[in-house]
Amino acid sequence: MLVITDEEIKKHVTMKQCLAAVEEAAKIYRTGNNKQPIRTAMNIDKQNGTMLYMPSYSEEVGYTAVKIVSVFPENRNRGMKSLQSKILLTDAETGAHVALMDASWLTVMRTGAISGVAAKYLAREDTRTCLVIGCGEQARGQIGAALEVRELETVYLYNPTRSKAESLKAYILDELAFNGKVEVVEDPDEKAGDVDMIITATNSVTPVFDGNLIKPGTHISGIGSFKPSMQEVDVNVLKKADKIMCDTFEGCMEEAGDFLIPMEKGEFSEETIEGELADLVLGAVPGREDNDEITFFKSVGFAMADLVTAVEIYRVMKKQ
Amino acid sequence: MLVITDEEIKKHVTMKQCLAAVEEAAKIYRTGNNKQPIRTAMNIDKQNGTMLYMPSYSEEVGYTAVKIVSVFPENRNRGMKSLQSKILLTDAETGAHVALMDASWLTVMRTGAISGVAAKYLAREDTRTCLVIGCGEQARGQIGAALEVRELETVYLYNPTRSKAESLKAYILDELAFNGKVEVVEDPDEKAGDVDMIITATNSVTPVFDGNLIKPGTHISGIGSFKPSMQEVDVNVLKKADKIMCDTFEGCMEEAGDFLIPMEKGEFSEETIEGELADLVLGAVPGREDNDEITFFKSVGFAMADLVTAVEIYRVMKKQ
C-alpha cells in the first residue's frame, strides 16, 4: 500500500493533471455509475470537534475512496491545523486498499481545479487581470488553476491580514514562477470594478466586495463560503450576472450561503442557476457567449472530484 | 503517521495485551462515553462486493477509529482474500490521524480475546481439554486466548477439510509452543461430550455438534456464526446451559443465528440470556458458580473491542 504525503503531492502532481481529473470527475458525476452514501459525522464533544467520513465510488474510475476529516477548531490555540484529512483509496475490482494519502493539498488542488475548469468555459479568453479576495491555503490552488487556464498579466491580492496576502504573493512569484505583476491591495473594491476575473476564497459571513462595481465581461468564482450562513458575494453579483453556474446543484442548495441567504430573503430564485459544471463540460449549457457577459460560478466541492483527483495522484505516485 | 502491518502485529503484540484491551473495552462499552454511529455500507455491484465503514470513539480511551472493510466474495476465484480490512486511528484530543493498521490479524486477536475474557469468568478453573470446531484463521486467536486463560493439556481439532485442522495443529505446536497434546478428530461428536470446553468457529448454517452430548461443567464459546442465517450450536446447548452470556445483547439480537433461529421457532427466549461480557467484567453477573454449571458464551464482536485493541497495538508499535 502506498502512503502519500502532502509534500509528495506538491512535488509530483501538477495542476494540469488535476484540471484533467476534475473535468473527468464532472463528466462522471453526470453520466457515470457512482455511489456517494450520506456522510457520517461523529461529534467529539470533549474537544468541540467533529469526525467526518465520506465514502464514494465510481464504476468507471474503478476505485472507491473514503475521505476522513477531523475538524478540531480548538487546534488553533495549539498552533495546529484545525482540519486534518486523509483519503483511503480502494481498488474496486479486488477490494485491495491501495493508498492512503494526505488530503489537505489534494483539497487545495481539486478546489482550484474545479474553479479552473469553470473558468476555462466561463472566463473571457482575453482575461488578463484577476483579483483574489482571501489569501489562505485555498487561494494557492485557485490562482494556480487560473494561471493554467488563462494568460494572466496582473494579479491583485486582498486579505484582511496583509501578511497573508504578501505570503501568497511570494508563493505566486516563487513557486508558481509567475512572470506578471502581483500587487497587494488595501481594499478589494479598489479593483473589483476593474478586473476580468474575481476569485473569493474566504469564510466570510458578509459579502467581501461591492457587487455593483462589476464591469461587463467579468467572471466571478466563489469558492470560500461552504455553509448556509456564509456569504462572500452580495445579491448584486447574482442580479448582474448573465450566467450563474454551480459545481453541483444539490451541494449548493445544501451549503452555499451565497445562494441560500438571498433566496431566503426572496431576492434570488434557484431557477436562475443555469446548470452545473458537468453541463459546461458536456456542452449541455454553453460557456461564455460574448465578451460582455458577466458570469458567476459557485463551488462547494463534490466527492467525485476528490475521488478522481485521488486516483490521478495515486497513478502519478505509483510511477515514482 | 505509523503504518502497521499484520506481520508486525503478529511479531510484537501478545495475546495477553489483547486480553487486557478487551477486558477494558467491555468495561468502557458499559460505563464510558462512547460513540459508534451506524455503519455505512456501499455496494460495488459490478463485483458483487461491499465496502463497510465503521467509526467508533471512546472519550476514556482518547482515540477514534474507523474500520474499513472490503468484502469481495469473488476474490476466492482469484486466490485473494475476500475480506480486506484496515483501521485508521485518530487522536481524539487533536484530530491527528496517528496510525493506519491492517485489521485482519487484529480481528483474529480481538475475537480470540473476547472469548478468552469470557472463558476466564465462565470456564472451569480446572479446564484441561478443549475441542475446537472450525480450524480457519479465527481459530488461531481462539486457541491462543484459551491457552492464556486456562492450563489446557489436550486440544482436539475438527474441520471438514482435514488439512486445515492439521495446519492449525502445527500452528498450536510451533507458533504457540503448546506443550500438551493436539489431536485432529474425524467427528466432533466423538469428543463433544468429553471435553471441558468447546469452541465453535465456523460459518455453518446447521449446528456443528450434538448439543445433547454435553456433560455438566462444560463451557461452550460460539464465535463463528455472525449472520441471522448461521447456526453453530443447536437448541439443546441453549436448553442445557445454566448460564447464557453474550458479548453485546444488541449485536447478538441483530446477528446471532444461534439465538435468532430458535427464537423464531419459539424454542428459546432472549430473556434467558443473563447478560453481556461487561456484566462479567464488572461483576454485575457472577461468573461460573459451581463445577457442574454448563455455560454458553456467544460473540459476534463489538466496535469498542476493535478500538481499544487498535489503540493497544498502536501503543506497542510506537515503542518499537
TrEMBL record, chains A, B:
InterPro entries: NAD(P)-bd_dom_sf, ODC_Mu_crystall, ODC_N. GO terms for biological process: carboxylic acid metabolic process. This is Ornithine cyclodeaminase. Signal peptide: none annotated. Pfam families: OCD_Mu_crystall. Belongs to the ornithine cyclodeaminase/mu-crystallin family. One of its GO terms (cellular component) is cytoplasm. It comes from the Bacteria. GO terms for molecular function: oxidoreductase activity.
